[in-house]
Amino acid sequence: MKRVAIVTGAARGIGAATVDALVNEGYHVVAVDRCRDIPEVPYALATPAELDSVVARHGDAVLGLVGDVRSASDMSLAVETATRHFGRLDAVVAAAGVVGAGGPVWGITDGAWDAVWSVNVLGVRRLVEAAAPVLIERGASSHPRVVAVASAAGTQGLRHLAAYSAAKHAVVGFVRAAAMDLAEYGVTANVVSPGSTRTAMLDASARVYGLEDAEAFARQQPIGRLLEPLEVAAAIAWLCSPASSAITGAVVAVDGGMTVS
Fold first, then answer.
1. Are 230 and 20 in contact (CB under 8 A)?
2. pTM of the shown model
3. How many CB atoms lie within 10 A of CB 261?
4. What is the full DSSP assignment across 41-59?
5. Considering just the CA atoms, what is the radius of gyration of the chain in Å?
6. What confidence tens digit (pLDDT) does each residue in 61-118 have?
7. Residue 194: strand pairing partners
8. Residue numbers annotated as active site
9. Which of 116, 140, 91 lies closest to 205, judged by CA?
10. CB 226 within 8 A of CB 198
11. Are the beta carbons of 191 and 250 closer than 8 angstroms?
12. 229-240 and 13-24 helices cross at what angle (nearest 10)?
């Protein structure tokens, strides 16, 4: 029987690329996305049409589900949907994330801070707490996996993006602790931390710094270019696979060397 995964933030960017990568590895996937904007987030989020497009290119291998990662009931529904529709659950990927309005730390409103933290941190917690009992029940022989998408910002402080940087640091800490809680049950939990990747979020970050084009961020990475979402997704898919069985509590930098020094 095929392995089954849940991917949040699945309608575009790294989330959508992860759905593609997992399907290419033979998975069935429940693709989850909010599909509507958040007032405190200063750019448009993914749409229902984008989620439908991800589902359409994979046929019966992918089931789309509109859900908010901040909602415990929505994440429980995602887990229930995976087990009911596909018969099992082997991996969860917390790829949903947002970047907030830019500015110095003393100018961040409570609403903007809460929006960034609720999606980026609470969203990971909600998915993990919903999935953990099912993954534990699967047992070590089924190679159950948890993967969260953080950021190079999870090890750095980014000017004018304090809420985002702090949230991604928190994702790293949360997943490392979860890895310790899950280890005795044979469930691994890891973080992938991308560098500047060609996504709508990076376009929003460019506007924070008054840049005309996100391509300017390529200078931050020793490889001299932006990453493509599929490059990040390839690492996520590997961490979801049985081949990654010796790795847990790790932060895998997929950042073109951005955090080497």
1. yes
2. 0.96
3. 5
4. SSS----HHHHHHHHHTTG
5. 17
6. 999 999 999 999 999 999 999 999 999 999 999 999 999 878 899 999 999 999 999 9
7. 254
8. 164
9. 116
10. yes
11. yes
12. 50
Q: How far apart are CA 27 and CA 256, in angstroms?
A: 27
Neighbours of 180 (CB within 10 A): 11
Where helices occur in the chain by DSSP H, the ranges are 13-24, 48-56, 72-85, 110-117, 123-138, 162-182, 200-208, 229-240
Return the amino acid letter for 107. Answer: G
Task: Name which of 17-31, 168-182, 196-210 the model is least confident about.
Answer: 196-210
Strand order, beta sheet including 91-94:
62-66, 28-33, 4-8, 91-94, 145-149, 188-194, 251-254
Neighbours of 129 (CB within 10 A): 14
DSSP character for 221? S
Number of residues written out for the chain: 261
Contact between 127 and 44 (Cβ < 8 Å): no
CB 41 within 8 A of CB 64: no
